[in-house]
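Shipment paperwork, digital attachment
Item: protein structure file
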Amino acid sequence: MSAVTASGLYVLVATLADQIGFGFELHSAGFISSVLFLVPGFPLIAGLFDLLQYQTVAAVSRLAYGVMILAAVAFGLSIVIAVAGVDLSPRPLPEIAYPVTLLLRAVASFAAACSFAILFNNGGRAVFAAGLLAIGANDLRLVLQDAGMMPASAAFFGALAVGLVAPLAGQRFAMPRIAIIVPVIVLMVPGMSAFKMIVLFNRGQMLDALEASASCGFAMGALAMGLAAARFFGHR
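Attachment content:
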């Protein structure tokens, strides 16, 4: 119901803006981004972490929970797509100067990580620390992708940076490192690929769905590996 409400409101606002004369297009990225706050990033990442530590029962439980939430959200999206006729094909990116792009990414990363930290009931210091860490780690991931690195490899280095810096930030702000790590890692979870995967499978577009699922799976695994590598270096 949350997915139907959020994505339906996006379609409604976009349609009204276009009718008024703002020339607002119904972009697939914006449509799916309207429900990214529902991505169960914590159980998915924690489940992969449990697999690395051979805690199979806990891992299966968390991954099953995360997949069920993703499926429920994707089914809600499918309802709105069917009713509104939303086109999920990618659109060309707007031409923006690269320094402006970096600045906009930094602002968006800070705002998104702070928002996720608030959703996880963190205190003010943890919210601010998560926002600052997201500026560096998420921008690093995106810059590496711009340089030609594959998304999964870029996600690994982004998660590695989070895992290495979070303990220092935790000591500085006197808070558990998990309170800082989770909001930033959730920001890097490929929610758009995950939702596209289920929606496309539901629509019978198998090749596109398999491409999205592979992209999502490799990125999720890279995030877990990056955190695991950071933990290894931290123990050393």
